[in-house]
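Session log. Operator J.P. requested a structure for one protein chain; no other inputs attached. Running the standard single-chain path with token output.
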Amino acid sequence: MKKAKKWWKIPLISFGVLFALVFVFAIAVAWQGMAGMGKWREWQKSHLAALESEFVVIDNAQSLEKEKLRTGIDIEQAIAEGVRLNQLRGIFTHNSYKQGLTPMSRVLYNILTLLGVTEKDSYTYSFPPITEQLNSGVMGLELDLYQNKAGEFMFFHSPVIDMESTGINAQLALREVSLWSRANPSHLPAILLIEAKGTTVAPFGLYGMSGERVEDFDNLVREELGENVLTPAELLRDYSTFAGMGKEKDWPLLEETLGKVLVFLHPGHATQDFLALDETLRTQAMIPAFSHGNRDHEQAAMVLVNDPVNYGEDSRQIVNERGLLVRSRLDVWPNHLPQRYEAGLNSDAQWLSTDYPIGLYEDYSAVFPNGFTADIRP
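Structure written below.
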């Protein structure tokens, strides 16, 4: 009598082989991602050393002329007209540190595209280094914040799979912003929007931002930017809340904000911990931003209205009736749709984020109708 063939072993073996291949692939993705951190750390140190060796502070007259060429804004005229901070509009980059994907991560995203999980070419974009962006006219940066087990703060997109970053060491990235700001003493106020991420991948020593870590980063902002950071207390002056200041349309004059950097904390899981440090905001360096759904918070200086197509009217109401700042998005890589771009411009949002900054692409760059990255609202 013949023995029955054990057909059940075939799918079991196939599953085992597939699992092994997936495991090896995952290790390869992780290895390249983690190895990339070291590469970008060394690049960043060398880059910053070169910037420090070339550091020269230009005088105010030169700085004003440079700003006119960089942004299209005649600052002296704006000062004469009494323009306030909330009338300034600027375009800045989204995930400003980003440097595409490692080869293995690109394979991973291609697989996810085939499975319909993500869109083709998602996350493949990259930007020039911070100083080059700012010199080209970019008015601000969006930076995702993590911390490693050694306590180092880091800017990158996603743990392990998307960590190619010119700001892998967040302290050095802040120092680069500070160098640029100090070298250009009359620059229009620059924006940093810091998103404290919550994702933790403990096996790789990467951690999301708890309340205590956010406090430590706030101290680092003050340490690295020094007198160039424009704090909540300096913005509020005698007002107790941003809601009260906005109601009076009494933002500081643009003249008072030249040469300054405003650092906003992106709304998220760390917001309440950050507010709990000091609800008056008199001791923090960062300014809390709030989501569209929490726009009524009394300390909402900036509200994020990401979708100008469907929520443009809300954006205009927040800006014009409540006197607050709004950040919106002109495009989302890999798409740049005319409808969204026009809706963003017409939303009256002061700060507009892009994945297509000026000078990088021939078919589309996010600029105002004047051809520059800054504009003045009436």
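Operator note: The chain is about 40% helix and 15% strand.
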